[in-house]
Amino acid sequence: MTFEPTAVNILVLVAMAAYAAAGALLVRRRAAGWAAYGAGFGAAVGAFVVRWVQVGHVPFQNLYEVFLVMGAMMLPISLVCRRALKVGLEFADAWIGVAVLFPVAFGVFDPAPQYLPPALQSPLFVPHVAAYLAAYVVLVKAAVQAAGCVLGRSAALEQATHRMVLLGFPMLTAGLVLGAYWARLAWDDYWGWDPKELWSLASWLAFLGYLHVRGTLGVRYPRLGSALVVLGAVLILITLLWVNLSARFAGLHSYA
Amino acid sequence: MKRVRFIVMWSTLAAIGLLAVLSIVGAFLGAASAKALFTSPPLVAFWFFLAAILVGCFLVDWRIIRSPGLVGLHLGALLVLAGSMWGSNLGHHVAARLFGIRRIPHGMMVIPVGGQTDQLLDVRTSAPIGRLPFTVGLKDFRIAYYPPGGPWQLWFERPVPPDAPDEDRWARVPWTVGEETAIGETVLRVRVLRYLPYARPTMDAEGKVVGAEPDASSAAPAMEAEVSLRGRAIRGWLAPAGGADHASMPIGALIPVEVAAHADLALYLAEPPRMPKDYFSDLVILEGGRPVAEKTIEVNHPLRWDGYDIYQADYDKAAGSYTVLTVRSDSGLRVVYAGFWLFVVGALVRCWGERAWAVLARRRRHDV
């Protein structure tokens, strides 16, 4: 684990520092916290743009790039949650941003630029990956709220979890369906029983199960529903990390 | 009715949980075994059970009918299930038995440039599995490459028998300017002294490369390297001349004379392999021996003809002399696609639209 002083990594390090400052400041000094959060967002977007120029295509291809993108998504998602859903805990979002950008800056993932293989040269590449990444960030944020509900059984956290899942679930569904539609065009079938497909289906089913529990049983079992959201987030992390890093799950998505 | 609703509700939750667990099991099994698992008789029964639950939801849960989003989600799921079943091997078998619709669900074709065939092969065994109702001809096959990029690669040719495969013959030597690395599994060491990305070789009177100078107009690099063995060392330049894609540096002089077989050992500096950007097959469809359609297909751009989709899958990597196509029947595909879009629209309407509508209605009531 080393820090290579490339332009992207320096900007990511700046973003991490600003996010960390935001994570600390947003608890009490909110104006300064939002300013730091904005600065971190600017640095993360700058790193994304530099990477885009370097590799010559939208940098959504490998773990180095998708974690960079997720780091840049934190502020917009915090703002949507605050404005549209009345869900707070932005300081936690900022710390999630630090955690997401850490492996980018410190060489955990291979930063070597890669050519896009023929299958990824499709107009569906960006919407498919973007829908998934946005859903992942939203649903991990939902899991933070849900974990609080599991531990403390707060009605406010339960409501916030529900609103966040309602925001993220259509994105997750769009990612799944766009992927299936694209797979039919590229690989001749919309479902290949590939390990990554199956893990992503399992994570989608966890949130579908939550929505069914919440829809049919209401708020009578807040801990059961919240536990399903936390489980869904764990499955997302497995889909994103274990499946991509382990040779055990080699398959059609191995270039990711 | 309340009891039936209770059963449907818990059956739904159980089915979702079971499917999630089976998905995780399938991920550990790998794609081929997972497909076998999910199309096995017990799981076929499960898919029918799931379809029955979805129909049951409409019959017993009035909330679904009242919500356009929930109607979209549940109807979408039902259509995806129905279309997938109709497009499965079993669905094709049933269609042939009941309606006389005979189609081969899936297969592949291997066609040389200038050749044509209607024969479908099994994707795994390459055994013939049937014939298409039309013939596919390959007029031409082309590969587009990314421009070569990155530093050239250093290779060592191992002293192996002439018929040894390439992976046994060639060892790639990682290099960084100024650092010493081992050459393959030998005790030989190499240190790259200089690397000029764009260079022109300088030669002596006998045409031997003796150095190199930077030259921005050149597409080839030059490398000065030192190879050592137990305190002895030789230096030399690896500089491709005249547009060559590699250069070599003999290192046999370092090897003791009694090992005569190793006297012609060399290091090679070679252009990195070019990555294929895309590959194209110029196809022609023939019916009754006459061409009826033409299309250039590539990855992500299949050809659809007479109920089959024809895909660019692979090609002859050695000489580019043939193309490999996969062919899939489109039975049930439109139903599945309709299900996909109903599903996404249903999720959006249910999770975003209906909530936004409720918030707006609440605000309007407050305004009044």
Walk me through this protein's architecture.
The complex is a heterodimer of chains A (256) and B (368). Chain A is mostly helical and 256 residues long. Chain A contains eight helices and no strands. Helix content of chain B is 36%, strand content 35%. Chain B has eight helices and 18 strands. A four-stranded antiparallel sheet of chain B has the order 1-18-17-16, with no helix packed on it. A four-stranded antiparallel sheet of chain B has the order 2-3-14-15, with no helix packed on it. In chain B, helix 1 (2-29) runs antiparallel to helix 3, helix 3 (41-60) runs antiparallel to helix 5 and helix 5 crosses helix 6 (89-99). The longest helix of chain B is centred in the C-terminal third of the chain and has 35 residues, at 333-367. The model of chain B has no long low-confidence stretch (mean pLDDT 89). At the A-B interface, helix 6 and helix 7 of A face helix 1, helix 2, strand 14, strand 17 and helix 8 of B.
Class from helix and strand fractions of chain B = alpha+beta
Bulk shape of chain B: elongated
Query: Structural class, from helix and strand content of chain A?
Result: mainly alpha
**How much strand content do the residues of chain B show?**
25-35%
Helicity level of chain B, as a percent range?
A: 25-40%
**What kind of sheet is the major sheet of chain B?**
4 strands, antiparallel
**CA(first)-CA(last) distance of chain B:** 39 Å
